[in-house]
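Sync notes, pocket subgroup
Present: LS, DG
LS reminded everyone that the earlier model was apo-only. Rerun requested with adenosine monophosphate included. Inputs:
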Amino acid sequence: MFVSQVSFPDNITYKHCVVIQLHVCVCLQWEEVSIMDEKNIPIRTYQVCNVLEPNQNNWLRTDWIPRSGAQRVYVEVKFTLRDCNSLPGVTGTCKETFNLYYHESNEDRESYIKESSFIKVDTVAADESFTQVDVGDRIMKLNTEVRDVKVMMRKGFYLAFQDVGACIALVSVRVFFKTCPLTIRNLATFPDTVTGADTSSLVEVRGSCVNQSEEREEPKMYCGADGEWLVPIGGCLCNPGYQEKGGTCKACSVGFYKAKSSDAGCSKCPPHSHSLRDGATVCDCHSGFFRADSDPPSMACTQPPSGPQQLISVVNETSVVLEWAPPRRLGGRSDTSYSLECLICQTGSHSQTGSKALLCLPCGSDVLFSPDQTGLKSTRVVVSELRAHTHYTFIVHARNGVSQASGAGAAQSVSVTVTTNQAAPSPVSSILVTDVTRHSLSLSWQQPDRPNGVILEYEVKFYEKDQKERSYRIMRTFSRSVDVTALNPLTVYVFHVRARTAAGYGEFSSPFEFATNSDPFPLIGEGVNSAFLLLSVSGVGILLLISAAVFIISRRRSKYSKTKQDSEEEKHLNPGVKIYVDPFTYEDPDQAIHEFAKEIDVSSIHIERVIGMGEFGDVCSGRLRVQGKREIYVAIKSLKAGYSDKQRRDFLSEASIMGQFDHPNIIRLEGVVTRCKPLMIITEYMENGSLDAFLRKHDGQFTVIQLVGMLRGIASGMKYLSDMSYVHRDLAARNILVNSNLVCKVSDFGLSRVLEDDPEVAYTTRIPIRWTAPEAITYRKFTSASDVWSYGIVMWEVVSYGERPYWDMNNQDVIKAIEEGYRLPAPMDCPVVLHQLMLDCWERERAERPTFSQILNMLDKLIRNPGTLRRTGGDRPTATLLESELGSEVCVSVLPEVCVPVSSVCEWLRSIGLERYGDTLAAAGYTSLDSLLALTHQ
Ligand code: AMP
């Protein structure tokens, strides 16, 4: 028998375990005994050792043990057990095990619990140790056995030990349950957690974020049955201004910041910023430095840029190219952008002080900026669609992301004031067809959106669509409409219209297509006889001519109007007529010159002497020997050194114009020298120089017929030019050259370009007022009809042997006098018919003036009938003369050819230049002059 004592210490701490305290033991048969342990420390034990008697049933029960939330409790029993073999005489009754029971109960003071209420946990045997008693010495072997039991039903439980005949000493009983201890994982705190009821069960636990942190993802862990935390999920991040340190979030120290909830640490404040307190989420900028809303806190604080530098403007007509250099200081940023302010300025007087100042208003929305007006990254902008001859101020602002924050956006700018030049008109935007017939199309259009000056005329270019632009025709008109006739029926035509101002031609409009139809006549009125219409339309005036020739002698002053239309039509509708091309329409002036003028090798020119002074330099005479041709005399105009690009262009443009003409009464261009300097224009040599000087030199030395011959030559040259749609604008005796055979040739094709230079100034000062038609002076309507006016003046100059028109009247008086109806009187000994022709040329209404074709016809008649030149202003008409005067006036005005004997319809038509209507008349049955005479209006 041995004695042992069961002791139940108050607090024994196990890792991850909570020990449930055991109190007093309730026992029967079991004895409480104090013994010494191995180290001779006294301990209390409960012992039983009834091994000699059979059927033992000794119970030892604990006090009520509170469950304390545990679901599974562990019972650790330390005991000693005697080996039955070591006890003599106990065979059959001695046992080496005991049983462990439990009973759940809410009642903490149950005095009596039936044995059957206990549930057996296990039979506990000593694993290997049996306590032996050696001679003289006691060897105590302590067994430790742990059993676990699920206790979930009640608040607590009782444990009981059943002895069935063993020799046992219970040294200690420890009851505990396991927990997963409080822990911090991923910045989340997980509380002390009791493990689950089953050995395999996991308890899901939600963590809570530590101070100054926020959930990144719900923090979760599982508490295993063993009290180990498993599978951490999610977690928390330190708040802005805090960083993780040892599982907690600590504030960033001064000079550091943290902007976001992140697992990153605090960062040092970026350049030009600071933080003065712990826990900064952003660093404040130093004074004078700024941060844009979009700037990240990690970015250095920056400054607005300084102003753009070196703003350069280049004006090109109504466009301005602005270029500048980036600001000297970009403020530490790379987002500098530019915006343009456009102001349209006028000089005005200050209302109070009266002093002159530039008054500026914002430009309209029609101004175009390329690539843009604001948000520019590049340092170049093309501003277009500006008004011509207008002052503009452009302010270029430089901005960056902090300009607004700094409140200094407007300060960083640079400005420039420019004045736009003249510009060609913008293209006509649309063409409408107002009438269509088999052979004609009536078109109209609106003025271009941006005329950029007074429109002088429109040019209509058209061609059959199938022909493309291989062969086209051109018409010019002053109005915004035109009747295009002599077209092919049922044919599609393509039309382009462009406008011309003093600045030159604008771009052609885009193509507009219109088709003629199959209607033979325009719908002039109902019930009109179609045959009559045919004659009326196809040969406007034929019937009038016939009627007048046979029945009446007309004295109408508007005698040229109808026939002028004919002639215009004739000019434009003759597909064979070559059309003058304005060299200023070529972008590259060299292209025009090489298209229209021959390059001459300078070695083939031999200069002899200076014969005059031209606008661009000396005019010399000399000889030209081109290989394979005989040597000829030439005049050589050269461009003096130090010329500008524009002067070069203007100088060569005269050759480009002249080179397009080929007529005995137009000065002939031999070629140009452009490949070496000086640049030269070589023309045929005119021995007698300019006509005005020549006549003055030979005052009164020529017969009227000779003078008329000279005038005829000039008229012929001018007809040729007007047929080519070239308007000379400066027709005057000084610009006519005379050769040794008294042949007069039109020269000087430079005035149009002079006008283009500066319409405002040149127009009034350089325009040859005395030679110019009133509508050209007032409205700049330069046309072949205004050239006819000038021709009338030339006639007067010729007949008066180089007298100055209007003598010494000043220009203003001349303009006023013409306006009031005054016309130059007939020079001395001037045939009446010639003065009448002059007066016709000076008709106020330009449509009433004769055409060059008519003038030419008239002069031809006069030359063929010199008698008509006999009567001068000084003669008194007799009755017979009156007859002939009437006759001659008819010749001049309406029926020039009727006075000339003709023998057939064809001959007659040819003599009046309308031979193309021969077939039409023949088809209508008019084959003889007699039949024509029988033709009536009906
Ligand atoms: P322009 O530059 O055409 O006005 O010429 C100036 C002067 O040179 C004229 O007034 C003429 O006297 C003279 N001149 C020009 N071209 C010729 C020429 N082809 N033949 C003779 N003299 C000319």
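DG: DSSP finds 19 helices and 50 strands in the chain.
LS: The longest strand covers residues 167-180.
Action: DG to write up.
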